[in-house]
């Protein structure tokens, strides 16, 4: 196995280091695990196993990559968040997967492609990349490589839909939050990028938290509420999020939010 590699360049617009590290830790410890059913469903659908080479776009703190190594795949992740990448390095180079064939790169998918063997599977589990990036990706890969794009399912099937309205309401109109994708957004993104559609799926990903404070911290770590924080302040956003989560508070104090995610398989 080749050693894991991390290349980290500080992002010019990054938050102060301590704040960014705390937010990344909340993502890794609270929020990221909510998407495990999505990760595993895709790996099973794509028959990911020994010999597979997975490129994770927006790999975050590396949980999806760690699960891929558990299937026997070599992995390469790219992300623009240096704090999350540091946590991914701890996972992939430390006790959880020491010695696995893994690379992590700060930057774009094209930089990632230049530093590793061609992938046999590309995933974008968190935020779908832009059409220009996907177009460049298609031109750089061989024919037939699967690219899996994922996002929220129908708003009526997601408890997060009304909660995200907090971000929409508090944000400055000139700085809108990254909101809900349209019903056919992933398909449209793939076809605009010259990719060939080859299937889709839906996966239940309930969000479960130990309590309201844990829920708010987890949701703030996603970045979906950053524009609202910039327009007001984190204390106000924290308060209004807690109120929006009240319908999902159970008698034992936990928070439970059923959500449906969907993914699209496209090929280069």
Automatic annotation (TrEMBL):
It comes from the Bacteria. InterPro entries: SAM-dependent_MTases_sf (IPR029063). The lineage of its organism: Bacteria, Bacillati, Actinomycetota, Actinomycetes, Kitasatosporales. This is Methyltransferase type 11.
